[in-house]
Model the fold of this input.
Amino acid sequence: MDAKSTLKHYFGYDSFRGGQEEVVNAILEGRDVLAIMPTGAGKSICYQIPALMLDGITIVVSPLISLMQDQVKALNKAGVHAAYINSSLTESQISKALFLASQGTYKIIYVAPERLGGYEFNAFARSAHISMVTIDEAHCISQWGQDFRPAYLKILDFVNGLPKRPVVSAFTATATKEVKDDILCILNLNAPKVVITGFDRQNLYYRVEQVRKKDAFIVDYIKEHPDQSGIIYCATRKNTDAVCELLKSEGIRASEYHAGLGTEQRKNNQDDFIYDRVDVIVATNAFGMGIDKPDVRFVIHYNMPQSMENYYQEAGRAGRDGEPAECILLFSPQDVVINRMLLDSKDFSDTDIEDIELIKQRDMYRLRVMENYCRTTECLRNYILRYFGENTGESCNNCGNCNQAYTEYDMTDEARWVINCIAETHGRYGLTIVIGTLMGVDRARLRELGTTVYRSYGALKDMSEADIRLLISRMIQLGYIYQTQEQYSVLRIGNIESLRSEAARVVIRKHKKTPEQLYYDTRG
Ligand code: ADP
Done:
């Protein structure tokens, strides 16, 4: 059976989606693969089809028990012999599964990374014919990723310990350069075929709203979109409870999902949503992994998430059927403070991560990128795509920022002052000090640092802080300056060659608040 017939036979699909066939063919030719595809693109099939066609067994390293269970259940239903090995099984169940595996019962075996070092699993793997090792959610191998999992570092040893090196294929939805390089390097992929499919989900309409009355906004939005399925993401369980109660009291069919609920309750609430017994599910980010509801028409974030990776993944649960869907982020500056606190109190005690400081720095960096998404007045789609390493062209004309009325201001002279200020202070300071200096504020801290003696001190005293922020974020986008990726990041000068030209222009856009936004700012 060829790949296409295998697809039809087991999964019932007539054709491959973008990128899938390329990955399948590369694996079948015996090449290592790194596939970077957004959530919902159909990564599983990319390794399941070759797994079915290769002689031996495929081992899939996967980070989450629930994910493994779902996959194995779906495969069994499709008539594929598959099993998982993880801590949800007792020791004797594991022994039995490994015995059956060694008899050739299973074509695909999912395994938690922690098992790879175990004696029993290794004994099995060394005596079996392993054709492929697949690493799902491969970004877990990188300390740059937000889900770093130390046990993923053991994968290479495991592969090297096998009598014959299998094909190694890795899959992830995180495409930042750092993560990609880490995967290629740490897994030591052999002349890999790297397949990156577009991160642009054209049917998704992105919007950021900074309104004071978030509750009123949500209630009205849902009532204006009756019978549509939607997800409301909140930062905390407390918010989740409150918003869900509010919706119910407004007669909206809603249920909630967070880690504080019992397993059974969570499952019931999730099913209520999947089977359309409720329209809306209010959830923390615990909700969504492995959920495949195609007709989610809107995803509203009640609070700003901690990173673009999280946002893209959560918002991406909208519109999996390819029909138009909306992704709305309700931003308030308070969200930044809350997230900083959450990140600061993040618990590392159950990991063996050594460099916690480094992880914290990167967390803070990702939070800043996320905050800038909420504050930018540029095309939101391009902002997302650029972050995930794609080149972008014109504005999309199909996002909240592109469609909002704005006024453009030429800030070329002001931009040069920002550069002067960073140069004069030798790139030692972050946003607050640079802005304070440019505004010429009279603060002891600035006198202490000596920035009050510079020429740029007070050079932009007629601008508001918000406008200077906007200008700086525009300049970062244009690459004239950049923020270092430390916890206390500083501004540095980037590539200013083009700014030297007489014709250079730095233009910022300022949104006019829409009547709708004003309404939700003032409504009682
Ligand atoms: P990912 O892991 O990339 O988030 P999944 O592997 O869970 O995505 O696939 C998302 C959905 O798309 C699943 O319901 C899957 O069955 C479906 N799918 C995958 N490939 C195809 C295809 N070629 N044709 C139609 N549907 C597909």
Observations:
- The pocket of adenosine-5'-diphosphate is lined by residues 13, 16-17, 20, 37, 39-45, 292 (CB under 6 Å).
- Residues 356-375 form the longest helix (20 residues).
